[in-house]
Amino acid sequence: MSFLSWLLPRKKPVLSLEQQQRVLQLPPAAGWSDMSLRQQRWVVVDLETSGLNLNRDQVLSIGATVIEDGAIDLGQSFERTLLRAHTPLNPSVLLHGLGPGAIAAGSDPAQALLDFLAFVGESPLLAFHAPFDQHMLARALKDSLDYRLQHPFMDVAMLAPMLCPQVTQRDAGLDRWIEHFNLQIENRHNASADALATAELALILFSRARAQGIHSPLALQQRLNQWQRRKQVHSF
Which domain of life is it from (predicted)? Predict the structure, then answer.
């Protein structure tokens, strides 16, 4: 992508009438609520992308599962591979089973993203290393639907060290936390499996939060904001 291309106006996506109507009918996202952590419906999401460049790479697949009533609801799950005909693939995506054949057989991105938003509804989102997923999802929604992502994200990768300060794992990845808590995860390294693993970790962390007197999503996010500010101050 050339420097001059950044100066050009963004080309709006061409949507069918049905897709335009679906965009208009999307419910507004709710903010952080003061209901109990158990009552909150959470959507745990994981993305596979063509690479790690926030401005150039694209979302290739979306996997998501739901935490509701204090448990993972396996009856509520989402998985889509997106059609990306002209996207160069980073060799690492082959580890996730997303070869050229899988991408060529994927769903229309606009349709897949509309289905995902319908699945999410008003629920907040959880992800491991959430800023990356949030940025990539927001870009995909803007490019394919001209839709601005409004849903709040909570970062499980930050919750874990905040709620488990006795664990001396600096910048630990998902695999390290799975190992620490002895979680029995059969599959890894595709979007749906990683979303499920993140959901299992999140349930443990919610239990830790309640034990520390944190009982709502709003209180949990506020505590996380305070913890991150303290970390920034101490890093100077």
Answer: Bacteria
φ and ψ at 91, to 5 degrees?
-55, -25
Rounded Cα–Cα distance for residues 172 and 186 (Å): 20
Q: Look-up: residue for tokens 């963004």?
A: 10
How would residue 1 be classed by pLDDT, with cut points 50, 70 and 90?
Answer: very low
Ranges of each domain in the chain:
32-235
Give which of 164, 148, 168 is closest to 156, Cα–Cα. Answer: 164
pLDDT digits (tens, 9 = 90+) for 138-180: 999 999 999 999 999 999 999 999 999 988 766 789 999 999 9
Q: Token match 């991105």: residue?
A: 109
Q: Tell which CATH classification among 1.10.510.10, 3.40.910.10, 3.30.420.10, 3.40.50.300 matches the domain 32-235.
A: 3.30.420.10
On whether the CB atoms of residues 136 and 205 are closer than 8 A, the answer is no
